[in-house]
Amino acid sequence: MTNDALWQRRKNALSPTYAHFYDEPLNVVKGDGVWLYDETGSKYLDCYNNVVSVGHCNPTVVKALCDQASTLNTHTRYIHENVVVLAEKLAAKFPEKLDTCIFVCTGTEANDLALQMARCVSGNKGVIVTDAAYHGNSTVIGAMDQRRKNFGQFDWLETFEPPNTYRGPHAGKDEGEMASLYASEVDKAIAKLAGKGISLAAAMLDLSFDSNGILIPPGDYANLVADKVRAAGGLVICDEVQAGYCRLGEYWWGFERYGVMPDIVTIGKPMGAGHPVAAIVTTREIARKFSEIDRYFNTFGGNPVSAAVAAAVIDEIDDRKLLENATDVGTYLQAGLEKLAGKYSFIGNIQGAGLFWGLDLVSDPVSKTPMSDRELRHITTLLKDEGVLMGYTGRYNNCLKIRPPLIFSKENADQALSAMDRVFRTLG
Ligand SMILES: Cc1ncc(COP(=O)(O)O)c(C=O)c1O
Prior knowledge:
Strand order of the largest sheet: 4-10-9-8-7-5-6
Strand content: 15-25%
Bound molecules: pyridoxal-5'-phosphate
Distance between the termini: 39 Å
Order of helices and strands: HEEEHHEHEHEHEHEHEEHHHEEEHEEEH
Number of helices: 13
Largest sheet: 7 strands, mixed
CATH class of the largest domain: Alpha Beta
Shape: globular
CATH architecture of the largest domain: 3-Layer(aba) Sandwich
Helix content: 25-40%
C-alpha cells in the first residue's frame, strides 16, 4: 500500500482533529535507539521524541514489559511488589519531603488529580498558569491553555506573562530586575482572581516553559513565584511532564534546577518510554489530607506491567548515566547552536538547557518579528529530508524545538547541527 493510500484511509477512519507534522506524511515503521525508520528503510535521527528518553524500543524496557505482561496484569486493589518498588525508586529521586506517589496513565490525569488535591487541601478553587502553557487535554486542564477556544472561559482561571528574557514586556533588563518584574505578573493574576472573590488553590508551573518556546527564567524568578503563591494560600504544582527525567541536564527535575520545593509534582511522558504511565509525587501530609476528603482509584494506574516498565526506565537512566549524558551532550550541542547563531541572524535567541533547546527564529532580528508557522513547517520538512526530525513550539509557533532521547551522543549532535547548517543556508 502506498503512503498516499494509507494517508487517505487514515483520514477516512480517524477524526480530522488528528494533525500530522509534514505535508507529505511520514510512515514510521521501526524505531531503534535514536533512530526511526520509514517503510523504505530510510533512517531518521530523532531529535524530537523525549518520551522514548532511553531510546526507541529499549531492549531492557521491552523485556521488563514482556516478562510482566506474560505473567500478570491487574490493578492496585491487590498488593503487588512492582508498584511498591516503583514508588520507592521514584521517591529516592525526590527531596525527602516528596515521598508519596499516586499512579495514573497520562500527564493530563496527573495534572487533573494534582488540581483536585490542591483544591481539597487549600479549600480554594483559583488556579494560575503562564499564558499559552499546555498542561493536557481534559475539559479542566485543557482550559488552562486559553488559546484553545472550545474549552471556554472559567472564572477560577487566570494566566500570567511567561518569563521570556528575549521577548516580552520585561525582556532585556538586568537579570534580578527581570526576575522580580516577571514574578510580579503573578501578583496581577492573583489580584484578578481576588477581584472575582476567588482565592488561590494552586499555580501549575512547567519550569521548562515548553509551549512558550523552552525558557530559562531569570535569576530567582521561580522561588519568587512560589513565595507569592504560598502567601496567597495556594499550592505549588510543578508539572514535570516535560522538564523532568533529566531533560534539562544536571538535575533529575526542573524544580531542582531553581531550588524550588513543590507541594505536588506531576510526571508522565518519558516515565514509561512510550508506555502510558504517569504519576503524582507529593508529601505524605497532602496525600493524607486528600484521602480524608476524597478517594481515588485509577483502573490502569499503577498496574504491575506499567510499574515494571517505569522501574526499568529509571534503572536504565541510572545504569547508563543518562543524566550525565544529557548534561555533557547538552553543553556540546549548545556550543554548536551558538556557532550557528553567529552565522545566521534569523536565529534570534537560543533558549533551553541539557537536551531541550528552542531556537527563537525571527524574520527580522531588530524588530524580533517571529517567523511564521508556515516557515517553521518548511524548515522542519527540509530537516526531515536531511534525515533529521525536529519540531517547533512557542507562543508564536516560531521556536525550532530540539528534544532528542537522552541517549543522544555528540556524534548525533554533530549530525543534527550539520543538517541544520545545510537547511539554514538555503534560507539565506
Ligand atoms: C507540560 C505538559 N504537561 C502535561 C501534558 C499532558 O500529558 P499527556 O499528553 O500525557 O496527557 C503535556 C503533553 O504534551 C505537557 O507537555
